[in-house]
Amino acid sequence: MVNGMLIAGGAFADRQFRLFFGGVFFAVQAIWIQRVTLGWLAWERTGSARVVGLVAALSLMPTLFAGPFFGVLADRVDIKRAALVTNGLMALVLAVLAVIAGEVGPVGLGAAALAIGIISAAHHPIRMSLGPRLVSTDMVQHVVSATALNFNIARLVAPVFAGWIIATAEGGTALWIAAVCYVPMLAVLPVLRPRALEPRAPSPFLRDLRDGIAYAVKTPLIRQALLITLVFATVARGALEVLPVLADGGFGRGAAGLGFLTGAAGAGALASAVMKAAGVGAVGARIPLAVWAAALAGQGAVIAMGLAPSWPMALAATALTGFCATWCGVSLQSAIQTDLPDGLRGRVMSLWVVVGFGTVAIGALGIGALADVTDVGQALALAGVCGAAAMGAVALGVRTRRNHPM
Asked: Do 37 and 175 meet the contact criterion of CB atoms below 8 Å apart?
């Protein structure tokens, strides 16, 4: 078997993928800068964990409802032109928010987060369809690993950078930088030539939507991957969205502390992404035991985040959460993408986005609301316990179905 890193290197030999990767590198920096900045502005302006959770939820919630519909569109439209529209709109929203950042209150932050959420609901299935269509199908799993490595390098670097910018300048400056980071992607997209979809007869929109859902439900590997992602994203990734509350409300570390805490999650995620890019734990016909172990360990890490008695232990628990989140995310996305027909890629991946990103909104909103009633430590600990129980139920259901197929 060829080493995964070598195959990933082969993908970089393709000029189209190199250009795409270069544009995505900067665009991903923007994602993390705006996430940290919006969360901090919500905490700075209100001091409410509930508002922080709400802003995070508004930036993710539209994916729950609109994601599958945008997935159908991704399988119908010119994928390159669609990517130009979503990247351009994201840059525009961030630029407008940067202009009014000094005066914006919780309502304005919520409106901006909602706009970002709607654009993201369209952008994610488009991005996940475009990358694999730039390379041969045998490299898809390794392209997923390479782009995940890029995502998690940004996750390590951008939050610390954003925290430093916010602490030394202001949130508006950080938002301007995020907006500018979309420019390279907008410059690269016109020269890309993604693989064309096979011609097919026109069909009603809702039938296309139903066909994508049916394909995901009837394919055991995809169905299991979606269930694991649903539980893990709601709890573990939801916990990572309320880090402003943990950093300042729990430990009094301010914006710089938020940058380091988010950077710790990024460090764990980066270590995981490097291992996946090197071919460790490749997904075959079944979900590997390592993925199940990481899914359960991630819930334990959330509990440890809540119960951590010291700042170093909170950083370590957050790093473990980031490691497990990336291990599960890359493995499960690879499981779905590897043998997925191009003509169904947008619809099926939009379902993965719904459970991988949209449900984070529910987790963030719930943990934030609970933290206002009790405190952030107790809220995280309770969320981790519920997540572990739910993950056990999913594992039991998969085992029962495997032993007693219908």
From this structure: yes
